[in-house]
Amino acid sequence: MRTRCSRLIRILAAGYAAAASVSGATAEPASPPLTSIASQLTRSRTAGWDLVSLRTGVKQVVTLRASLPAGDRFAPPENRAVPTLTGALLDQGTSRQSKFSIAEKLEGVGAQISFSVESTLLQIRAKCLSKDLPLLLELLAEQLREPAFAAEEVEKSKRQWTGFLRRQMESTDFRASESFSLLLYPPGHPNRPEPAEAFIAAIQEVTPDQLRAFHAEFYGPESGTLVVVGDLDPATVQHEVARVFRDWRGGRRLVAPAAAAVRISPSRQDYTVTMSDKTSVSVVWGQRTGLTARHEDALTLRVGAAVLGRGFTSRLLSKVRDEEGLTYDIRGGLASDTFSDGEFRITASFAPESLERGLASTRRELEAWHRSGITADELSRVKSDLIGSYKVGLATTDGMAGAILDSIHLGYDLSWLDRYPQVIAALSLERVNQTISSYVNPDQLVLVKAGTLPDRPSSASVSGSAP
Description:
The protein is α+β, with helices and mostly antiparallel strands. It has helices spanning 7-12, 37-40, 82-88, 99-108, 133-145, 151-168, 172-184, 196-205, 208-218, 234-244, 298-309, 315-323, 355-372, 376-394, 397-409, 416-426, 429-439, and strands at 42-46, 49-55, 61-68, 112-117, 122-129, 225-230, 269-274, 281-288, 330-335, 343-350, 446-451, 461-463. Helix content is 42%, strand content 16%.
C-alpha cells in the first residue's frame, strides 16, 4: 500500500471536467445508473461522520471514498509542509502495529487504502470485498486515529518528498503550472501553492511533534464525509462505522472562503521559465474567473469552455493539433473552484520551433470563441458528451462514490446527482455565450512558458514579473 499525496499532481494537472463528472473507466461495473439515485441513498450522522451509503448491483465489492478538511491551506504559519507530511505518514505505522503488519493484512484480502493531501482536503480512497469491510474500516480507523509518526519514518518521508520535488522541478509542466498559480493567486489564497524550493526547505524542518500537534488539531470527524458504495447493507455499514470510530472527536468545521469579485486577474503578463536541454515548451495561459463551482454561472461557463478545450472534438485540439500539427496536446477549461474562486486556463506543449506559431494559433481560437461564442451544434454535442460521460461514470462503484462525495463538497443536496443531466440539458445557447463574454477576457490573460526556448540561454533562468 502506498500513500498518494497529490499536492504536486494538483499543480501539474487541474481538472477540466464538468463539476459532477466522474472517472472510473477501469473500475468494476456496477449496476446501470439508477432512475433516482438520491432516493436510494442512506445518509446519517454516524460517529461524527456525514455517512452516505448506497447498495448497487455489483457483486462482492465495496468502494469507499472519504475526506477531512486537513489540507495544505491549514498549515501552521511556521511550517507549510506539515499537512502534507502528516498525510504521508498515515500509512507508515500506528501506535499498535507497523506499516508492514497493516500492509500484510490488506494484501492478504486484496484490499486497498490510500491517502492524498490536497489544498483543502485529506482525501481517502479504499476498496475491498464485501466480506472484508469490517477489517478495512478497522484498519482505516486505526491509521486515521493513531498514526505513530515514528522518527525514522518521518526522516524517510522527508527524504522521499525532497527527492520527488527535486525531480518535479525538472518538469516543464510542473514549472509552468506552479509559476502560473503563483502569478494568479495572492498569498493566503487557498489555490496559491508553496514554491517548491520553499517547500523543500520547510520539509527539512518538520518534526514529529509538529505532525502530532497538527493531527490532534485537524484530524477528527467534525467535517468528515464518508461514502460507501457497492454490495453492502446500509445498516451494517452504519454499525461498523459506529463501532470503529466510537469516541473519536475533534477536527475542524470547514468554512469556505468568501468568493472573490469577478474579473480580478492581474494585468496581462508574459512570464518565462527558461530550462536547459528540454525538447518541448510547456504553456499555461489563463486568468481568474472570480467564480466558485457553486456559482450559478460556473457550470454554464464550464460547458462553454468544454467546446473550446475538452476532448478530441474541441476547437483547440481539432485546429491547433489535428489541422495545423503544432502540438500533441492542448486543452482548456475551468479548474480549482470547488472551495474557492478558481480559474480559466489553457495548457499546451509545443516544440521550441513551433512555439510562436502555436501561441498565435491558440490565441486565434481563443479570441474567436470569446468574440462569437459557440454554435448551437457545438452546444448540443457538448451537452451530449457531458451527460454521457456522467452516466458512464455512475456505472462504476468508484465513479458513483466520487460523484456523491463531489456533490457534498460542492454544497449540493444529494438530489443534484439526479438533476445534473437535466440542468446541463436545459442550458441555452444565449446564456452560455453570455457567460463566455462576461468571465473571460483574452486581453488580461497570464501567459507562462517553461522549457528551452529558441534564442534563449541554455542555463535555467526566469524572466517576467516574479511571482
